[in-house]
């Protein structure tokens, strides 16, 4: 199996600073996006610290990379951010959402905290693999709010879990089999707040993932891009069914 991917990040049309960050380590089968918490000090520092910690762990692990090691990297990033906030920001929080995708030997492993998302397009069906750690999502789950009202609710931007906010971080994890043709989208809420799922679905059906990725960004900018926008597309191919226009690498990683 081979992997094609495309990553991009844009500050949007309103924000002066890009507080998003992303990581693409295809040789290790690892991709991630992070969103520095809006309204908090040093959000750009927070998101980059999370990416740097993940990169260090992946580099050191080599073929021994595993979901457990990635989870520990996020815990270490959480402790580092809590310490940074206390020492450098006089206790003001610097936090970040995060979503991490690991692909190993026909399986995917997803780790996340916050409202950055991962979608899977399979058999022309778009599935949101992650669930938002947000106030409105909890209200929907409890039957207190209709799902159709969530995006426009006054608490829509209030997240309940993020790296660096509390001394203890609970990381959500999801694992399952993957197969050729699967297309994963990792993105910050700067994209999902502007584009509904049905529009995202439409663009992901494009055969060329670079064109699909650029179309997502363009439509987000057309919609106003009030926040930073970061996305990564990751597509799995059969080794004998590769688009030579895509940037692909062989997937031949060992499971630990």
UniProtKB/TrEMBL annotation:
Residues 2-236 form the PPM-type phosphatase domain. It comes from the Bacteria. SMART domains: PP2C_SIG (SM00331), PP2Cc (SM00332). One of its GO terms (molecular function) is protein serine/threonine phosphatase activity. InterPro entries: PP2C (IPR015655), PPM-type-like_dom_sf (IPR036457), PPM-type_phosphatase-like_dom (IPR001932). Pfam families: PP2C_2 (PF13672). This is Serine/threonine protein phosphatase. It comes from Arsukibacterium ikkense. The lineage of its organism: Bacteria, Pseudomonadati, Pseudomonadota, Gammaproteobacteria, Chromatiales.
């Amino acid at each position: 199996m081979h992997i094609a991917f495309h990553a991009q990040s844009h500050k949007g049309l309103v924000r002066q600073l890009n507080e998003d960050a992303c990581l693409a380590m295809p040789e290790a089968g690892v991709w991630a996006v992070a969103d520095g918490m809006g309204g908090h000090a040093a959000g750009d520092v927070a998101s980059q610290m999370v990416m740097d910690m993940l990169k260090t762990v992946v580099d050191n692990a080599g073929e021994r990379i595993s979901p457990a090691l990635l989870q520990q990297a996020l815990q270490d990033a959480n402790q580092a951010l809590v310490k940074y906030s206390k020492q450098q920001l006089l206790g003001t929080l610097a936090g970040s959402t995060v979503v991490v995708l690991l692909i190993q030997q026909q399986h995917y492993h997803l780790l996340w905290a916050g409202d950055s998302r991962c979608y899977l397009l399979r058999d022309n069906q778009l599935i949101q693999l992650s669930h938002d750690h947000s106030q409105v999502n909890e209200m929907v789950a409890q039957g207190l709010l209709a799902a159709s009202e969530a995006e426009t609710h006054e608490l829509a931007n209030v997240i309940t879990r993020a790296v660096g906010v509390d001394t203890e971080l609970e990381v959500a994890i999801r694992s399952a089999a993957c197969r050729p043709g699967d297309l994963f989208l990792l993105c910050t809420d700067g994209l999902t707040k502007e584009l509904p799922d049905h529009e995202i679905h439409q663009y992901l059906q494009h055969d060329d993932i670079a064109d699909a990725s650029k179309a997502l960004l363009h439509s987000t900018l057309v919609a106003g891009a009030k926040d930073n926008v970061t996305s990564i597309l990751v597509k799995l191919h059969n080794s004998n069914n590769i688009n030579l226009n895509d940037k692909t690498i062989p997937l031949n990683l060992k499971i630990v």
